[in-house]
Amino acid sequence: MLDQLAQALGYALISVRRFLKQIGYCRSYTHNGKWYTLHDSPEFDRDGLWHYRGIGFSKHGSLTATIDHLLARSPAGLSASQLAQKLGPPCHDVLTRLHQAGRLDRVRLAGRFHYLAADPKLNRQQREQAALAPPPSPTNSLSAQTALWILVEHIKDPALSFEQLASRLQEQRYVAVAPQSIRELFREHDLKKTPGTLS
After folding, report:
1. Distance between CA atoms of 23 and 40, rounded to whole angstroms?
2. Does residue 186 contact residue 193 with C-beta atoms inside 8 Å?
3. Phi and psi for 169 in degrees, rounded to 5?
4. What CA–CA distance (Å, rounded) separates 55 from 46?
5. C-alpha 181: how far from its chain's center?
6. H helix or E strand, kind and range, residue 104
7. What is the pLDDT at residue 174?
8. Distances (CA, A) of 103 to 9, 118, 120
9. What proportion of the chain, given as a percentage, has pLDDT over 70?
10. How much is the pLDDT for 70?
11. How many CB atoms lie within 10 A of CB 133?
């Protein structure tokens, strides 16, 4: 963070900002953009994203710019859970604000919102593709972020069943996960599903 850099270097914030501008940096799209890293540190994936200790950085800059990019390159648009899988933190509130501001479009598919680009030509193509696509189903492969969310929810309420954990993730994180995938996660890491403990 800037204040940490300023304290470590013994310079004022304005000087640290000038130094960063001179050498090049990336600013996080998570945590309200409070984290900085040198421009050559991130190892971006094919979506232009890099995560380090739960902090997200994007080639495209801010969270809204990153959502714009992801939607623009998706033939059929993306659901909130698909975006959360890519971005890390749930972004339902941001998506709602962007839709209200006309920055993106959305349609309801299988009872859930599906987000599309605002560009009229691309929007028309995505609407056609989205209408033809099968309804989203819970994923069987878990990302590291999703596995972490599962463990966090389990620690908060160890009495939840695998089905209830899957429902909790859908309601609070907008991520669809099959209960069997959660069961496999516990089995692979030798975690016993008993109240009050993960061991």
Report:
1. 10
2. yes
3. -65, -35
4. 17
5. 19
6. strand 104-109
7. 65
8. 40, 6, 12
9. 90
10. 95
11. 13
